[in-house]
C-alpha cells in the first residue's frame, strides 16, 4: 500500500497585520487624546472620561471624539455640537446692534455687517477723519459716543480695523497706507478706552489692513470712498479673531 502524504497546514505570513493595525489605532487614539488635553478644561475632561467609558463598555456613541472639520478647530470632546449653536451669538449681537442703530437714527451713517468672526459696525472715512489724516474730527464724536455706549453693553472682544483705498499716500506723517490705517484704528481704540474710559481695555485691539481688504473695486472715486473705512468688530464669543 502506498503511504499517505501528510498534509502540512498552510503557513500564513500576514497574521501580524491585525496586531499592527490594532496597535496603530491605539496609538492614534492616544495622540488624539493628548492633543485634546492640550486645551482641556474641567467640563471637557469630564466629557473625555464619559466618552472613554462609553467606548470601553461597548456603547455606541457619536460623542467619543468629534472633530470640527469645517473650522479646523481643536477636537471637540463629549457631546456633539447642536445644529446652529455656533451662530447664535452672532445673531443675537446683530439684532441688538440693529435695534440700537435704528433707535439712535444712525442708519444713514453706520452700516452693519456680519462675517465669520462676528458683527461689524462700519463707518466711512469722511464720518471720522479728514482726508489723509487720522485725527478724529469733532463732529464725529457724537457718533463715536453712541457706539461707545453700545459696545459697553457687550462683554465681547472688540477689534478696530483701519482700511484705506489703493491711492498711494506719502506726506510728512505717513509714508504709506499701512501707517495711515494703523493710526486711524488706534485713534478710535484710544477714544473708546482712554477718552471714554471703557472697562476691560484688554478686550480691545486695533488692526491695520491698509488697502488690502477692499469691499469695492478701486476704479472710481465713489468706490475708493467705500474702501476708506473703519470697522468696529464685535467678536462673537465662539469665534477667534485671526488677523488677515
TrEMBL record:
Residues 116-238 form the OmpA-like domain. The keyword Cell membrane applies. One of its GO terms (cellular component) is plasma membrane. Pfam families: MotB_plug, OmpA. Transmembrane segments: none annotated. Keywords: Cell membrane, Membrane, Transmembrane, Transmembrane helix. It comes from the Bacteria. It is found in: Cell membrane. Gene3D superfamilies: OmpA-like domain (3.30.1330.60). Its main location: membrane. It is a single-pass membrane protein. Belongs to the MotB family. This is Chemotaxis protein MotB. It comes from Clostridium estertheticum subsp. estertheticum.
Amino acid at each position: 500500500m502506498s503511504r499517505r502524504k501528510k498534509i502540512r497546514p498552510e503557513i500564513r505570513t500576514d497574521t501580524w497585520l491585525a496586531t499592527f493595525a490594532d496597535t496603530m489605532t491605539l496609538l492614534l487614539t492616544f495622540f488624539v487624546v493628548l492633543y485634546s488635553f492640550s486645551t482641556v478644561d474641567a467640563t471637557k475632561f469630564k466629557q473625555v472620561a464619559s466618552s472613554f467609558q462609553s467606548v470601553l463598555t461597548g456603547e455606541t456613541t457619536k460623542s467619543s471624539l468629534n472633530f470640527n472639520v469645517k473650522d479646523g478647530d481643536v477636537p471637540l470632546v463629549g457631546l456633539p455640537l447642536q445644529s446652529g449653536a455656533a451662530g447664535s451669538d452672532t445673531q443675537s449681537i446683530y439684532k441688538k446692534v440693529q435695534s440700537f442703530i435704528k433707535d439712535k437714527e444712525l442708519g444713514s451713517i453706520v452700516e452693519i455687517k456680519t462675517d465669520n468672526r462676528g458683527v461689524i459696525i462700519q463707518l466711512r472715512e469722511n464720518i471720522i477723519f479728514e482726508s489723509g489724516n487720522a485725527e478724529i474730527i469733532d463732529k464725529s464724536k457724537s457718533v463715536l459716543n453712541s457706539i461707545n455706549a453700545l459696545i459697553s453693553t457687550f462683554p465681547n472682544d472688540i477689534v478696530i480695523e483701519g482700511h484705506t483705498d489703493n491711492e498711494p499716500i506719502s506726506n510728512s506723517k505717513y509714508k504709506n497706507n499701512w501707517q495711515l490705517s494703523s493710526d486711524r484704528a488706534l485713534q478710535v481704540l484710544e477714544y473708546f478706552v482712554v477718552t471714554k474710559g471703557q472697562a476691560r481695555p484688554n478686550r480691545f485691539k486695533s488692526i491695520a489692513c491698509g488697502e488690502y481688504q477692499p469691499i469695492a473695486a478701486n476704479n472710481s472715486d465713489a468706490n475708493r470712498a467705500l474702501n476708506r473705512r473703519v470697522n468696529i468688530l464685535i467678536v462673537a464669543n465662539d469665534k477667534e479673531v485671526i488677523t488677515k
